[in-house]
């Protein structure tokens, strides 16, 4: 990229007032697309959970579960926007638990939503802030729905149970107070951790966000390109290639990012059309960071399982064979093994197709979706 600056000259870059970007923000990580397709049934399920609160009842708690970039955050934000535009009877508070992990931090966000300003950071006890929130909701007869996004971040310092309790048991101290939680998780393993970290106050429905198909990814990226670039900047063939790569990584964000990087590269060359060479360079630049991050975040046992299937050097192993070796290396039980397989499949690192052979014709293979991991 930097080399391109030399070719063009800094003046050209700064003074060049033509752009291929119709809307530069269309590729931002927190851009909310107007056109949000393929998630109607999930949006409906979320709406069903909120509905009772609009009619004087309690909202229904839910766990929102799906791999990265399956539209969970977008769905919640869109739904909250729609609910707030249509009813005063409920306060919807969206909380990014990566940013807010303490009781105080989370209730400050809720407080801000209700009062329009933050409580003082010092000098006021938590109980006061809590009381103010709940009292206001109670006197105005409003329900509260809290979305705790990436809620697993609350598990590290064991805050989750307390926070869930604070929110869901508010009715014990404040008459008729109606509260609910959407707990959003990107990692199927946390589904078990949630039960461990949050006891019986939270008995949720499950709303699943499945991965997008190849074609869905294509249509979503095409939509995004239409919003972000002027007509004719990017060809359908190039979008198709990006879709293919995106489907392979299983992460829609990768594709959106590729669009943006390709656009920047084309623009740096003052090229009005995106070329294959821009994509090739963009691929190098982004170098599948997402995939490497996923691998890096795996536990020792999860990596061990991946090692076993990659060590097989292209030979297809059955689940039974992988388990034998896994048990030998780690001493772990079959149920731990199963859980890890489930997680790796969820992360799209492996496939587990049925062979049609085996005892009841249901033996499975475990095959990697990537080439040998080089770190
Ligand atoms: N159905 C969809 N249509 C258009 N864009 C989508 C869709 N689903 C996800 N995206 C986009 O993909 C990216 C990741 O979505 P996000 O809602 O943050 O996923 P998650 O919270 O499940 O990780 C965002 O840029 C979002 O706009
Ligand atoms: Mg999210």
What does it look like?
The protein has 375 residues and is of the alpha/beta class. It has three domains: 2-31 and 212-292, Helicase, Ruva Protein, domain 3, CATH 1.10.8; 40-209, Rossmann fold (3-Layer(aba) Sandwich), CATH 3.40.50; 298-368, Arc Repressor Mutant, subunit A, CATH 1.10.10.10. The chain has helices at 2-8, 10-15, 40-54, 72-86, 103-115, 126-139, 160-168, 170-173, 189-197, 214-228, 236-249, 252-268, 276-286, 289-296, 300-311, 319-330, 334-346, and strands at 62-66, 90-96, 143-149, 179-185, 205-209, 317-318, 350-351, 365-368. The strands form two sheets. A five-stranded parallel beta sheet has the order 2-3-4-1-5, with helices on both faces. The chain has a three-stranded antiparallel beta sheet with strand order 6-8-7. The longest helix has 17 residues, at 252-268. The radius of gyration is 24 Å and the shape is globular. The relative contact order is 0.11. Bound molecules: adenosine-5'-diphosphate and magnesium ion. The site of adenosine-5'-diphosphate has 19 residues, from helix 4 and helix 12.
Q: Which helices and strands appear, and what pairs or packs with what?
A:
Elements: H1 2-8, H2 10-15, H3 40-54, E1 62-66, H4 72-86, E2 90-96, H5 103-115, H6 126-139, E3 143-149, H7 160-168, H8 170-173, E4 179-185, H9 189-197, E5 205-209, H10 214-228, H11 236-249, H12 252-268, H13 276-286, H14 289-296, H15 300-311, E6 317-318, H16 319-330, H17 334-346, E7 350-351, E8 365-368
Parallel strand pairs: 1-4, 1-5, 2-3, 3-4
Antiparallel strand pairs: 6-8, 7-8
Helix pairs in contact: 3-4, 5-6, 10-11, 10-12, 11-12, 12-13, 15-16, 15-17
Magnesium ion binds at residues 72-73, 149.
């Amino acid at each position: 990229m930097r080399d391109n600056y030399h070719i063009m000259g800094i003046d050209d870059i700064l003074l060049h007032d033509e752009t291929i970007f119709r809307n530069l923000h269309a590729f931002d990580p927190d851009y909310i697309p107007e056109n949000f397709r393929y998630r109607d049934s999930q949006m409906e399920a979320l709406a069903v959970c909120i509905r009772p609160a609009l009619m004087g009842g309690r909202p229904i708690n839910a766990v929102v579960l799906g791999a990265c970039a399956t539209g969970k955050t977008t769905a919640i934000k869109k739904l909250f926007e729609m609910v707030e535009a249509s009813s005063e009877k409920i306060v919807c508070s969206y909380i990014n638990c990566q940013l807010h992990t303490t009781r105080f931090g989370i209730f400050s966000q809720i407080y801000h939503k209700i009062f329009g300003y933050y409580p003082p950071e010092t000098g006021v006890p938590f109980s006061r802030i809590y009381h103010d929130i709940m009292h206001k909701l109670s006197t105005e007869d409003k329900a509260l729905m809290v979305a705790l996004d990436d809620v697993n971040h609350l598990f590290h310092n064991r805050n989750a149970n307390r926070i869930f309790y604070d929110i869901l048991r508010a009715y014990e101290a404040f008459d008729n107070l109606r509260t609910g939680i959407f707990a959003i998780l990107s990692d199927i393993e946390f589904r078990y951790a949630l039960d461990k970290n949050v006891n019986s106050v939270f008995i949720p429905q499950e709303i699943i966000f499945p991965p997008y198909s190849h074609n869905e990814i294509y249509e979503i990226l095409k939509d995004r390109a239409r919003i972000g670039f002027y007509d004719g900047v990017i060809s359908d063939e190039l979008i198709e290639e990006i879709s293919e790569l995106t489907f392979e990584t299983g992460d829609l964000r990768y594709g959106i990012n590729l669009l943006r990087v390709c656009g920047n590269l084309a623009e740096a060359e003052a090229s009005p059309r995106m070329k294959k060479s821009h994509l090739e360079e963009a691929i190098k630049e982004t170098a599948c960071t997402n995939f490497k991050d996923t691998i890096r975040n795996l536990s020792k046992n999860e990596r061990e399982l991946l090692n076993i299937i990659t060590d097989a050097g292209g030979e297809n192993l059955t689940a039974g064979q992988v388990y034998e070796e896994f048990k030998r290396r780690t001493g772990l039980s079959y149920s731990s093994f199963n859980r890890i397989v489930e997680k790796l499949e969820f992360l799209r690192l492996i496939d587990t197709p049925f062979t049609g052979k085996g005892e009841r014709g249901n033996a499975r293979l475990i095959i990697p979706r990537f080439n040998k991991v080089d770190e």
